[in-house]
Structure formats: structure tokens, C-alpha cells
Amino acid sequence: KTLSNANINLRTLNWADYDLTYSRVIYDKGDHFIKVGGTLKLLQGIAGGYAYVKDLNYKWQDYDTLSVFKTAAKYAYSKGFVTSKGVETNPSSLAQNLLSFKYAAPSVAVDLGVIYEWRPDKDKYKYQMDCKDQWMYYKDRYKLAVGFSIMDIGAVNFKRSPSYSGDFYADIQNWDVQHENFGGGLQSFDYTIKSRFQVAQSSASTFKMW
């Protein structure tokens, strides 16, 4: 039986961000209270990658023989994430590359949020001190609160690894997979792709991840 999985999408993204947040009350009359806030972020990309397969069609002839029919795929890793020596794990090298923005250009993102509170009994939480009205800030003064937020609106721009990125077309019959070994992780996967399928290197030097 021929099987199909349309539009398989795998993504990974690691980043650091440095934030500046501002918030304030914009409405406070009667029983209604509204406050808004936002965070501006400087993004620092660490590592990223994606794989996208459109209209995957395949068949297992038996438990160790696979056929893949007329399937197009795209994949990429960020530069420095995978090298000929493997995935970079040296803390010193990782920190140096991160602080120099070596493999990802700096970019910005934002968080936005708004909260509405219904406070029909807010006067219960008021008291007098030194002839002035004071609030019991340690108690919630609302009966109902509704919040809405959008987080991480932005994108990271990575430099594309030319050796470990590309688009490929899979149309292979009766592939004997019983001896395939992916002990080398991503390098093994990449070697298998290049040795089995038609790979076209992308002309783009960067890729963006939202």
C-alpha cells in the first residue's frame, strides 16, 4: 500500500533575547480598568534549522525495503551548527560565536499584552491614612479579569550552512535501508541525502525563522 503524508514540517530554533518592558494603566473609570504593556527585544540567534517535505509518497515493500515516489524536500541548518567535526558543543566556541553575532544577524521582536478588569466592589479595598485614600494593593480588586497577549513577534536571520543545506528530489525504488546507520547524527543524515537523492544547493546565503 502506498502511503502519503502531506506537508511535513520540522523546525528548531534557539535564541537569546535582551528585553526592555513598559506598561501602564490607560483607563480607570467606574467599574472598568484597562492596562497595557509591551516588551521590545533584541534577538541573538544561537542555532536554527528546518526540514520541509511536500506531498511525501512512499511504500514499504517489506520491513527493510523502502520506495519513495516523486517527493520534493527542502532543508537547512544555520552556519556553525553542524560542521565536518560534528555539532558544535564547545562552550567557549559557542559563547564566542554568540557574542560576535557570527552566524546570525541581530534582529528585534516584541511582546504585546492588554488586561481588562471588572471592579464593581473596588471601594471595599480602600482605606484612609494621613487623610488620604489608600488601596490594598496586596489584594485583587476585580471580580473578573480578561487578558490577551501576543508573544515573540519577530524573526531571526541565520547564515545558511552551505555544506549542510539544500533542496532535494526523492524518487527511489526498492531502497535497502537495513544497513543504513545514522550514528553520526545530522552528518549521517546529510551524507545519506546527498548519496541517495538529487540535491540542489540553495543560492540563498541566509534564511529567516519566525
What does this structure look like?
By secondary structure, the protein is mainly beta. It contains two helices and 16 strands.
Provide mean pLDDT, rounded: 83
Give start-end ranges of low-pLDDT stretches: none
Estimated share of beta-strand residues = over 45%
The backbone outline, from C-alpha atoms, is elongated
- Summarize the amount of helix as a percent range: under 10%
Query: What is the straight-line distance between the termini?
Result: 37 Å
Structural class: mainly beta
| Rg over alpha carbons | 27 Å
Number of helices: 2
Number of strands: 16
Give the topology string: H per helix, E per strand.
EEEEEEEHEEEEEEEHEE
Largest sheet: 9 strands, antiparallel
Topology (SSEs and partners):
Blueprint lengths: L2 E3 L2 E22 L2 E23 L1 E7 L2 E13 L4 E2 L2 E2 L3 H9 L4 E2 L1 E12 L7 E4 L2 E4 L8 E11 L1 E4 L6 E11 L9 H11 L1 E3 L5 E4 L1
Antiparallel strand pairs: 1-4, 2-3, 3-5, 3-9, 4-5, 5-14, 6-7, 8-13, 9-12, 10-11, 13-16, 14-15
